[in-house]
Write a structure and sequence with these properties.
By secondary structure, the chain is α/β, with parallel strands linked by helices. 36% of the residues lie in helices and 15% in strands. The protein binds thiamine diphosphate and iron/sulfur cluster. Iron/sulfur cluster binds next to helix 8.
Length: 292
């Protein structure tokens, strides 16, 4: 098979390859799951946008052959919000790291969930700041070593599932890069979901996390994911925190309906303004396009 015949050619910017990821890094698996999810969903690709912040995970926005914004550190969600509000017909996917989304970008994360913006956020959680050399962050488990916690982390980490669920997300799920089929399905469900959906993807960072914690190679982490995962759909998000060396609770924890930011905005403004000051719902736009 030549390079030109690669089955994912349609989805990848070959001119941006080779990628920057270390051998054994899990981000590429997560990216592959995303493009397979998009392929199976069959959404028109010219209406799908991937937005990222900065980090190893964030590189995905530049590698996929879709409209993409590789934005500033922590600010993927504000850029994505602007895109969605300006063009409600777009499918807007944020793909970034745990540090980007939950540390510097943590405020944007909780408020996007509270507003129930119609976005899908895919968060690669490798428990560390990979790109900048393995500093600890808000998802680093207690006692884990990093370049900035050489004697072990003593800051309690965020349980991202509880954080986004409590903030108002309507779809909340966690898988690992070992569970590829489940991950593809979760991405499809999250993308199809109207409102704020969040998928946490546990992934090995052999360079910044595994080595420093003497956890072996990437394949050892995959074995760990396989042996220590328990699928518990519908589990209370507050009960699925991650501990160093502990059991990983995976599954779909939240899947509910509530009005999106734009639905509430339309409803509220329609009482005061007339078109074109009130945004049209996409079915109306499509109906007009067909008529004209
Ligand atoms: C405003 C700003 N602060 C800090 C940085 C440095 N920086 C770049 S990526 C990064 C963290 C990346 O970690 P994460 O989001 O977990 O992604 P990973 O590299 O692990 O995939 C940091 C702190 C930056 N680029 N901009
Ligand atoms: S530093 Fe870690 S997260 Fe970054 S590419 Fe290497 S293995 Fe992946």
């Amino acid at each position: 098979m030549t390079e030109a015949e690669h089955p994912l050619d349609q989805f990848l910017r070959a001119d941006r390859l080779p990628h920057i990821w270390c051998p054994g890094c899990g981000i590429g698996i997560a990216m592959r799951c995303l493009v397979l999810a998009l392929e199976e969903l069959g959404r028109p690709l010219d209406r799908v946008v991937v937005v990222s912040g900065i980090g190893c995970s964030a590189r995905v926005a530049g590698y996929v052959r879709l409209d993409g914004f590789h934005t500033t550190h922590g600010r993927a969600i504000p850029f994505a919000t602007g895109l969605k509000l300006a063009n409600p017909d777009l499918t807007v996917i944020v793909f970034s790291g745990d540090g980007d989304l939950a540390a510097i970008g943590g405020n944007h994360l909780i408020h996007a969930a509270r507003r129930n913006l119609d976005l899908t956020v895919i968060c690669v959680n490798n428990f560390i700041y990979g790109m900048t050399g393995g500093q600890f962050g808000p998802t680093t488990p207690l006692s884990a070593r990093s370049t900035t916690t050489p004697y072990g982390n003593f800051e309690p980490p965020f349980n991202l599932m509880a954080l986004v669920a409590a903030s108002g997300a309507v779809y909340v799920a966690r898988w690992t890069v070992f569970h590829v089929r489940r991950l593809i399905t979760a991405f499809q469900e999250a993308i199809a979901k109207k409102g704020f959906s969040f998928v946490e993807v546990l992934s090995p960072c052999p360079t910044g996390y595994l080595r420093r914690n003497k956890l072996g190679e990437a394949v050892d982490m995959m074995r760990y994911f396989k042996a220590n995962s328990e699928i518990r759909h519908g589990a209370d998000p507050a009960e699925v925190g991650i501990e160093m060396g502990g059991k990983l609770i995976l599954g779909k924890f939240v899947d509910l309906e509530r009005p999106t930011y734009q639905e509430r905005m339309r409803q509220q403004l329609a009482a005061f303004f007339v078109e074109p000051y009130v945004e049209k719902v996409s079915e109306e736009v499509e109906a007009e396009e067909v008529e004209s």
